[in-house]
Amino acid sequence: MNFYDFTKEKLEKYFTDLGENKAKAEILYKAIYRNKKTLEEIAELSQKTKDKLLNDFSFSLPETIALQDGGDTAKALIGLKDKSKVETVLMRHKFGAGLCVSTQVGCAMNCAFCQSGKLKKRRDLTAGEMVSQVLVMARENPINHISVMGIGEPLDNFDNVKTFLEILSSPYGFAFGNRHITLSTCGVVPMIERLKEIDCGFNLAISLHAPNDEIRSRLMPVNKRWGINELMTAVREYSKSEKKRIAFEYILLDGINDGFEQADELTELIKGIDCFVNLIPYNQTESSDFKPSSRSDDFFRQLRSNGVNAIFRRKFGEGINAACGQLSSKYD
Ligand code: SAH
Hints:
Blueprint (H helix, E strand, L loop, with lengths): L7 H10 L5 H12 L12 H10 L6 E7 L3 E7 L5 E9 L2 E5 L3 E2 L17 E2 L2 H12 L4 E6 L9 H12 L11 E5 L3 H6 L8 E5 L5 H7 L2 H4 L2 H15 L3 E7 L7 H10 L5 E7 L14 H10 L4 E3 L20
Parallel strand pairs: 4-7, 7-8, 8-9, 9-10, 10-11, 11-12
Antiparallel strand pairs: 1-2, 2-3, 3-4, 5-6
Helix pairs in contact: 1-2, 4-5, 10-11
């Protein structure tokens, strides 16, 4: 068993099934996740307990095959047990660092503007493999925000992502949660309702990128399965019942979705939802012909004058191909 797949509750059950004190789960969680210790370094556990744990669990972390550091951004290529590779990206802000975690090897969503989609989906990551990305990066860098926005579609791997968020948010462990986690989805509609099962106070971001079906279906094949109305109904309902402010992500693509008309259409679409619009400059990828919008400022001003709460996302990681949509699994 992989230790990092275990929620604290599951670990407690492991100990009680052995007839042992379940408080050991708390000791382990605090030592490993909060204090970044190794099993050997935990003074509060007997050698007998440690031997049993070592016998039952793997504590090994994946290997960092390559690390590129571009100053405010660092990108690690992580090699998993079956030789699959994923990337994870650290962004250093003034107020601390954020980590962008991958959820799948490749991605099945195939968005036209995104490099990760060109990889095709090879498999889902386990919760432990997502936790490992955090541990590997947290060894050197204090992290205070997790974005579930790396390679893969989190809602196409719901159960593992749910476990991952439970482990991340445990107050005995990393204690992320309450706004220190953001999950981004392209809109796997049936799973949006199930997000209610995860109650760690994470932020939800929706990759919208277009204000109508015509444009969105051209950009994002997922929209052909669940159209924009279905998506917005699910998001509206979720935001209301969970009392959550939603972030709508919108990549500005030159001549595609960046006109005044689209700004007005977007304004209508999100009316009445507690939300803001995160405008994302397009990051060039090898495999598509899109261009960054030349009208971003006009689009932004139009949204603002319509009363929409819009912001620009700061650009990170371009120099080392670590920006949104540029993650793959190879190093050039
Ligand atoms: N599958 C999830 C999370 C991964 S993508 C999702 O779709 O939300 C993370 C964000 O990067 C998404 O908003 C995605 O649309 C955006 N993105 C993808 N390619 C991009 C590019 N080339 N430039 C800018 N943002 C991009």
